[in-house]
Design brief:
Blueprint lengths: L11 H12 L2 E2 H7 L14 H13 L3 E7 L7 E6 L1 H11 L9 H15 L4 H17 L9 H20 L5
Antiparallel strand pairs: 1-3, 2-3
Helix pairs in contact: 1-3, 1-4, 1-5, 2-3, 6-7
């Protein structure tokens, strides 16, 4: 699935924040807490409060998030509660079904997509099938181990094998 030509390009930070917002309106402090170490998403993709607020500013500017209301702060100024817009929800749905392009993106992009699928209660089967189809040529190209002195080839072989095994464990078994 290709991105629409008019769709803005988002960073993984922005996708993570949007994914949390799609789950329900929140203020930046709550979003940062949900993306902190020790949380399901934060253990894979963590963001500081500063980066959360930067992502919220960008998401609001492009129409993927909007201010919903203000709440009293705990000893400071009122907190702004943000929510995902219809356009933001649609963009996230498209992104969540699009496989990553490179093996090196599995640890970041694919893992974040899978965690957001789980958080939002979405079936990840279509993503896993699309990801395997996208990577099958890579798996075939790196199936045979290269000579031991080909360090880059050896890395690619083992990386491809690890990703292939990871996808196999996650894919639903048929039969």
């Amino acid at each position: 699935m290709t991105a629409r030509a008019d769709a803005p390009t988002l960073s993984l930070n922005e996708w993570a924040v949007l994914g949390v917002l799609v789950d329900g309106p929140r203020h930046g402090y709550d979003i940062a807490a949900e993306l902190a170490p020790g949380t399901p998403i934060g253990d894979a993709w963590r963001l500081s409060r500063q980066l959360v607020y930067r992502a919220l500013d960008r998401l609001t500017a492009i129409g993927y998030a909007e201010e919903r209301r203000s709440e009293p702060g705990d000893a400071g100024p009122p907190r702004v509660v943000y929510g995902a817009t219809r356009q933001g929800r649609a963009a996230l749905r498209r992104w969540l079904t699009t496989p990553v392009d490179h093996l090196r993106d599995v640890r970041s992009g694919l893992l974040l997509k899978l965690l957001l699928h789980d958080r939002l209660g979405l079936d990840r089967t279509a993503l896993l099938v699309a990801q395997r189809e996208a990577f099958n040529p890579v798996f075939l190209r790196h199936a045979a181990p290269p000579d031991a002195d080909d360090l880059v080839g050896m890395w690619r072989h083992h990386s491809a094998a690890a990703v292939e095994a990871f996808l196999a464990v996650l894919e639903p078994h048929t039969g």
